[in-house]
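stuck on this one:
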Amino acid sequence: MSSAKELQERGVRLFQHKDYEEAAQLFHQAREAYDAEGKPDMAAEMRVNIGLVHRALGEHPQALAAMQEALQVFQEMNDRRRLAMVLGNMGGVYAAMRDNEQAHASYRAAADLFDELGETKLHGETLVAMGALQVKEGKLTAGAASYQVGLEELNDLSASQKVIKGLSGIVNRLTGGQKPD
């Protein structure tokens, strides 16, 4: 029989290869194994992974249910980093469901926690996600501002993010705005 960690690692590999059903089975097995080992935090992480599988399959209510179970565990453990990560993931699910109000609330709560914890990269990624959602809603100025602040906190930008960051700097110079420090 495989250990919980081995099941988890195999599940992650399958998820990365988009074999979602098999990944979910392994994450369920890993959750049960972590529960048996008395590791509720890791069992909760497997619930998040199961939620991510449901999200990838477009099964949003199931994704939220799994993530909310994990959220409760992390709240009880006062694990603020993992709490913030689940909130960010839930923001993505709510955004996929077009429940923008809940998406913003989840992203905002996650961003605030990441900021408090000094998790600059995760804070930046969350702000980028918030900015993208705001742009989709037609809130271009707010979205661009959130996106730009988020990009300033990230080190490894994608090609499109580098272009957007460069363009925002040009727009700031042309409009007399200041480039953020």
